[in-house]
Amino acid sequence: MNFVYYCVEDQLSRAVINRLIRDLIGDIHLVELQPNQGGFSSMKAKFGEYCKLAELHNVVILTDLDSADCAPNLRSDWMHEIGRTEPLPSKMHFRIAVREVEACLLYTSDAADDL
Fold first, then answer.
1. Residue 97: which of 43, 26, 57, 54 has the closest Cα?
2. At 55, which helix (H) or strand (E)?
3. What's CA 106's distance to the chain center, in Å?
């Protein structure tokens, strides 16, 4: 069985990632890296460790844009924090929801109503 490791900020993001991965991949064993969440700062603090893990295994990181001005700047900030340059390991899937995961869900829900 294949493993996918993931890290999210909150329970809603956990539900989103679980659903997306299972819908896209199917039978997969999901391993949450920070089961008690801990939020943005905790994820950022461990980002270097997650990049090392991604050299061997698929790792999905989902965070919100929060107060950053744009996703590329937030990504650069996280990379700079760990002293790393692009590219990330090929198995690292670092995604930033602009503005919040909740907004993405609301948009998707509204878009589905138009179909």
1. 43
2. none
3. 18
